[in-house]
Amino acid sequence: MRLRAANGKAVWGDMALSHSELSHDHFDFLSGTTPLNRTDTDIIRTEIFEQIDQKLTLLDRIGEHVSSHVAHSGNSQSRNSKQLDAFNISDARDTLKTLKELSDLVGVWFANQSGAGLAKYIGDQFQGLDAALVRHEDMDDLARNWRVIDCDIDTWVLNPNDL
To answer: Which phi and psi angles does 155 have, rounded to 5°?
Structure first.
């Protein structure tokens, strides 16, 4: 519960109420209705699933590459004509961004989650390793880069209207 102001007085409000209101807002968007036009027969618009599918289809290229070169690498003949042309670190970032944004949005809509985002390791990432791949004198630079990446990831939020 949280404290709310009503008529100049503090009162306790149930968090379930705001959660319910937010859930109704999400379903209004999904079904294409408004609070004034809601009915108990409202259903999720087919376009929502089509839009999600279109976003995921953009990622097929990386999925096929990983399947043929990493998960089921086979031999060079089986990998023939399955190269990613001009795929670089920016493409990898964009792929991860799309997956994170979609999973957060789908989690909010269909799993009653709050869009938890990516897990962040708390502690020393190198503890227990025999040798880090980064020299000790470069650790501060690495930590700064990770903070920049964390800040970037924190901005990865997909507005339902941008689906």
So the answer is: -90, -5
Quickly list DSSP for the chain. Answer: -EEEEETTEEEEE-HHHHHHHHHHHHHHHHHT--GGG--TT----HHHHHHHHHHHHTTHHHHHHHIIIIIT---TTTTTT---TT--HHHHHHHHHHHHHHHHHHHHHHS-----------S-TTTT-SS-SS-GGGHHHHHHHHHHHHHHHHT----GGG-
User: Burial letters for 89-124: b for 16+ Cβ neighbours within 10 Å, e otherwise?
Assistant: eeeeeebeebbbbbbbbeebbeeeeebeeeeeeeee
Q: What is the pLDDT of residues 91-116, one digit of tens each?
A: 888 888 999 999 888 888 888 776 66
Output the pTM of the full model.
0.70
